[in-house]
Amino acid sequence: MVVLHPGAELYGADRVLLSITGALSEQWSVSVVLPAGGPL
């Protein structure tokens, strides 16, 4: 599964992304694509 996300910070939506991808990765291989480097 590939997840595209528009930012690489650690604000609300970014933290939700971490939670969701963590849960998904228990059953699937998950790759996250970000536009730049950052804390995320």
TrEMBL record:
Record's keyword annotation contains Transferase: yes
Record bears the keyword Transferase: yes
Superkingdom of the source species: Bacteria
Keywords: Transferase
Protein's name in the database: Glycosyltransferase
A single GO molecular function term of this UniProt record: transferase activity
